[in-house]
Amino acid sequence: MEIKDNLLLRHFETPTEFGLLVMEYAIQERKIFLTKLNQPENLSNEYIEDFIREVLSIAVERKFKVVPTHPKLAHFFRKNPAYKELLPPGIKL
Q1: How far apart, in whole angstroms, are the C-alpha atoms of residue 78 and residue 17?
Q2: Which pTM was predicted?
């Protein structure tokens, strides 16, 4: 999966057969706030979760702590406790 970091629009994006999958973000003090997930209809949850994992690997590379503010992203963190180490201290989901 190829993910483009669109710095101008502050989102990660990847093309799919159904349209563009986009995750909006804001960066503040070594934290990346994942604020919105725009997904095309008919896209599988497995594909979306792979996209989230790829974005989280980018955050790890850039040494960011991750603050998921979108409900689907918060659900992903609850469902995958291995990623909870990326949360800043004091953030519980």
Answers
A1: 28
A2: 0.92
Query: Strand order in 19-28's β-sheet?
Result: 4-6, 11-16, 19-28, 31-38, 65-68
Q: Do 66 and 49 touch, CB atoms closer than 8 A?
A: no
Distance of CA 44 to the CA centre of its chain: 16
Note down pLDDT in tens along the chain; length 93 residues: 899 999 999 999 999 999 999 999 999 999 999 999 999 999 999 999 999 999 999 999 999 999 999 999 999 999 999 999 999 988 877
